[in-house]
């Protein structure tokens, strides 16, 4: 029986790509090898990753936003060990779970206008629950979502996905889901006017592209929802829990949604969890009789490890003042990038709040760079950003990626514990990589060569 998982990891980690090629998603292995990200990480501590040689990398993906506290935070580890050691009854099912009650009580302190919590196992599951609850509470079929939205990839959540590449091959999706442009209140009003819309679901800051709302958009949307009897649902799965400098991103705009969805960071990166925080009236409609007490739920939801991870995460966020740190570090980065823009014509915009930042690139004016831009973009839309991300990884040991398929925006979503020194590391690395990308055709040739080299190396190894 395997008892030492560190030993198992050490023994087998060099086979990871072969194992995945044989038994899991081989395309993912091909992608990693093609862009040279196949270094084989062996350790993760805080905001850093370490490869086999012990080289330290700064992680700006944070597992797509789950490691707000950084990897393997001691408080999280201790919380989980203590649950295992306590031999709690866990998931009795014909009982209710104490730790779930405590976590719900603590979450509701952050959303005093709401009174009930429903726990799920992931972001998409929280979205599915919100869709069902909204239909049940309003008796209406429709859900309105925004273009470029991302709410997850299960069937309900995918029906609210603004990106064609995710939908292709999986259709037909759920009926009565209507998309409107983000930041367009007139279009939202037209969609809501049918009075067939149960919910409008929106990310306060869109993760795909890091798109910020206009200053009056979210409050205006909430007002329109109230007027037309539609529930206003804020998907804070990525933006919540301190990421943008406030506990919830909607606090920047003073909005009080009917439902708030959270997940990612609440897990501490360790135990998947999701939550729908909503009004009592919604629960009264959904769970309206004793025979409907289990009308929606999931076997593992509310399990003790997930609840302990959530409780410990909230304590660390408050104790280490991580939302405040996100605001300070984010300002430092945005200031640094904005200053850089005057030197590099391919930089188009820097936007974000706290530690959810997008650095957007765009077609240049000068002839010298136009040719290179078009050469890479003709090969594959959005490829230009790899001229920056690949050297960032290879030469500057910074792990990051673009903010979506075909995107010209590189996204920064680091742990909220990053330091001023880390910010300087990021700015130095980006400056060098962006300066290189401005060298003209040489940079493009070198990107092409890197991709071909990696592809050949991958083919030889397989
Ligand atoms: C805003 C938002 N909603 C929902 C999801 C789906 O979460 P999960 O991947 O846990 O299903 C994501 C994941 O990236 C997200 O960013």
Would you summarize the structure shown here?
The chain is α/β, with parallel strands linked by helices and 462 residues long. The protein contains 18 helices and 15 strands.
From the alpha carbons, calculate the radius of gyration and give it in angstroms.
23 Å
Identify every distinct bound molecule in the structure, by name, code or SMILES.
Answer: pyridoxal-5'-phosphate
Which strand order do you get reading across the main beta sheet? 4-10-9-8-7-5-6
| Strand coverage percent | 5-15%
Number of β-strand runs? 15
Uncertain parts: none
Helical run tally? 18
Structural class, from helix and strand content?
A: alpha/beta
Average per-residue pLDDT, rounded, comes to: 95
Roughly how much helix do the residues carry, as a percent range?
A: 40-55%
Largest sheet: 7 strands, mixed
Net shape: globular
- Gap between N and C termini: 31 Å
């Amino acid at each position: 029986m395997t008892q030492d998982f560190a030993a198992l990891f050490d023994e087998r980690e060099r086979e990871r790509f072969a194992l995945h090629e044989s038994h899991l998603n081989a395309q993912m292995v091909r992608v990693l090898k093609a862009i040279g990200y196949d270094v084989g990480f062996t350790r993760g501590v805080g905001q850093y990753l370490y490869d086999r040689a012990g080289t330290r990398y700064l992680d700006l993906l944070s597992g797509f936003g789950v490691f707000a506290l950084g990897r393997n935070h001691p408080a999280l580890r201790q919380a989980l060990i203590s649950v295992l050691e306590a031999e709690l009854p866990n998931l009795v099912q014909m009982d209710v779970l104490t730790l779930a009650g405590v976590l719900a009580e603590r979450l509701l302190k952050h959303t005093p206008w709401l009174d009930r919590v429903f726990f799920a196992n992931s972001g998409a599951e929280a979205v599915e629950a919100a869709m069902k609850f909204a239909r049940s509470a309003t008796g209406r079929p429709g859900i309105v979502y925004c273009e470029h939205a991302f709410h997850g990839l299960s069937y309900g959540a995918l029906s609210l996905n603004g990106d064609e590449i995710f939908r292709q091959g999986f259709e037909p999706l759920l009926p009565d889901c209507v998309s409107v442009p983000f930041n367009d209140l007139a279009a939202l009003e037209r969609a809501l006017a049918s009075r067939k819309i149960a919910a409008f679901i929106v990310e306060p800051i869109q993760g795909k592209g890091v798109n910020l709302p206009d200053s009056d958009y979210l409050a205006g949307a909430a007002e329109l929802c109230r007027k037309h009897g539609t529930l206003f649902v804020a998907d804070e799965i990525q933006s919540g829990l301190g990421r943008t400098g406030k506990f919830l991103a909607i606090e920047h705009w003073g909005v009080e949604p009917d439902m708030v969805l959270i997940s990612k960071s609440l897990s501490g990166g360790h135990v998947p969890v999701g939550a729908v925080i909503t009004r009592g009236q919604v629960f009264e409609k959904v769970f309206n009789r004793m025979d409907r007490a289990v009308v929606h739920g999931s076997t593992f939801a509310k399990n003790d490890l997930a609840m302990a991870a959530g409780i410990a995460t909230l304590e660390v966020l408050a104790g280490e003042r991580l939302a405040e740190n996100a605001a300070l570090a984010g300002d430092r980065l945005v200031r640094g990038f904005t200053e850089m823009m005057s030197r590099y014509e391919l930089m188009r915009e820097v936007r974000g709040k706290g530690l959810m930042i997008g650095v957007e690139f765009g077609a240049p004016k000068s002839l010298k760079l136009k040719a290179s831009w078009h050469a890479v973009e003709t090969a594959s839309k959005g490829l230009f950003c790899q001229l920056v991300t690949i050297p960032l990884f290879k030469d500057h040991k910074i792990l990051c990626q673009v903010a979506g398929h075909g995107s010209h925006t590189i996204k920064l979503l680091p742990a909220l514990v990053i330091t001023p020194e880390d910010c300087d590391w990021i700015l130095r690395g980006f400056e060098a990589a962006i300066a290189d990308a401005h060298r003209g055709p040489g940079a493009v040739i070198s990107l092409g060569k890197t991709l071909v080299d990696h592809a050949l190396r991958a083919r030889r190894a397989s």
